[in-house]
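User: Hi! I have a protein structure encoded as tokens and I'd like to know what sequence might fold into it. I'm fairly new to this, so please keep things simple.
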């Protein structure tokens, strides 16, 4: 038996490979051995033992060995636990729910379950106020009483409607919150393969116009002037809900989180390691691929595409974003992503710029401060706004 650098005499007395451990199974034979740190510790304990006036009998030695081994193992387990603790990154809390007609995921670092619940509650509340298909929602009631009487609106609905009107003006009517009758006529995603006649489209378009919406902040009411008019906030409400959820998380002191409401992404702060969030923009024709990746922090990244709800007839795609000028699905872009600090604004602008197309749309983006865009044309060209290009935080992937 090789005894390493310890003299035989010493090993015989203080190592585990003594008379009661003839094989020396637990003894480190040389410093490089796997158990060497353990056995070194045991040896040190043994040296202490040596200083006892009477050298112990073998049952005491065995008891000692058991205790010493226990101590050594605990020390190892404890130190490895500490190391793992140092290296481990803080785990995020994550929750996914289906709401606002889409899959919504919130992932937050340093959050509690209550904070996550509050974020979802806030979004659910916005949906309950602005979902026009529910007759007791603010917008449902507003539409129901169109041409007859004003209805009381909550602060949030009032604010979202004001924002919608603002973006309708900014986009020269490309964003139009009064397209309810046209959207119902086409019924994209609700009834299959229906293409309305020109007359039907014209009739629906007669009921549009932000000039026919009357908002009175004093009485906290809204009124639609023409019977049959219908407000539809599908192009902005999700963004509004995400802004509210982000605010709720920030108020709870959360500094690193991502909210993803089916194409409406908002990132709070940076990732815990200090790097920016990488948000992928879906390839408009290959659902399992991305067309670009942006690296961002504290911002909304919102995409409108012609691939979310659509049907195809005779090789033509009919989708859910309409050009108010024609009453037909907008055809100048197939994907439009807006990056800006407000999710409400990003949502409204993603729909507006989708309708305006690459030229007028990119002009609008370049005119607005803090607004960037990634557009995809029907020919597969990817256009990036100047600010985003200059910042160098976008990577366009091959088609
Ligand atoms: P999504 O809601 O699918 O993420 P958008 O934000 O672009 O995509 O919103 C599309 C929705 O907005 C439609 O389903 C419809 O309710 C509404 N909408 C369609 N066309 C317009 C438009 N030109 N202006 C405002 N809202 C629109
Ligand atoms: Mg939108």
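Assistant: Happy to help. Inverse folding works backwards from shape to sequence: for each of the 399 positions I chose a residue that suits the local structure. Here it is:
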């Amino acid at each position: 038996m090789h005894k390493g650098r310890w003299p035989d005499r010493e090993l015989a007395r203080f190592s585990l490979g003594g008379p009661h451990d003839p094989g020396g199974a637990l003894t480190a034979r040389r410093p490089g051995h796997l158990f060497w740190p353990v056995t070194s510790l045991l040896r040190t304990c043994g040296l202490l033992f040596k200083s006892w006036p009477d050298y112990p009998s073998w049952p005491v030695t065995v008891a000692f060995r058991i205790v010493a081994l226990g101590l050594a193992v605990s020390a190892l387990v404890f130190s490895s636990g500490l190391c793992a603790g140092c290296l481990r990154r803080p785990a995020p809390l994550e929750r996914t729910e289906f709401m606002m007609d889409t899959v919504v995921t919130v992932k937050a670092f340093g959050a509690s379950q209550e904070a996550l619940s509050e974020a979802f509650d806030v979004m659910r509340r916005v949906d309950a106020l602005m979902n026009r298909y529910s007759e007791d929602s603010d917008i449902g009631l507003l539409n129901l009483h169109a041409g007859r009487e004003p209805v009381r609106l909550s602060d949030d609905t009032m604010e979202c409607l004001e924002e919608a009107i603002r973006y309708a003006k900014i986009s020269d009517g490309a964003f139009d919150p009064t397209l309810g009758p046209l959207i119902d006529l086409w019924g994209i995603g609700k009834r299959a393969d229906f293409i309305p006649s020109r007359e039907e489209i014209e009739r629906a378009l007669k009921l549009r116009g932000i000039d026919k919406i009357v908002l009175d902040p004093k009485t906290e009411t809204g009124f639609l002037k023409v019977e049959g008019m219908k407000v539809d906030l599908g192009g902005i409400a999700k963004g509004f809900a995400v802004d509210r959820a982000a605010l709720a998380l920030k108020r709870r002191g959360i500094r690193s989180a991502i909210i993803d409401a089916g194409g409406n992404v908002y990132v709070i702060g940076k990732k815990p390691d200090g790097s920016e969030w990488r948000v992928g923009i879906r390839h408009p024709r290959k659902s399992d691929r991305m067309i670009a990746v942006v690296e961002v922090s504290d911002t909304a990244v919102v995409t409108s595409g012609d691939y979310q709800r659509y049907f195809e007839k005779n090789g033509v795609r009919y989708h859910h974003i309409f050009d108010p000028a024609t009453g037909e699905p907008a055809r100048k872009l197939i994907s439009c992503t807006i990056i800006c600090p407000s999710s409400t604004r990003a949502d409204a602008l993603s729909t507006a710029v989708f309708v305006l197309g690459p030229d007028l749309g990119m002009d609008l983006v370049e005119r607005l401060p803090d607004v960037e865009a990634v557009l995809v044309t029907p020919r597969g060209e990817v256009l990036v706004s100047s600010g985003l290009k200059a910042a160098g935080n976008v990577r366009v992937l091959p088609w």
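A useful reference point when you look it over: The chain is about 40% helix and 20% strand. Feel free to ask if any position seems puzzling.
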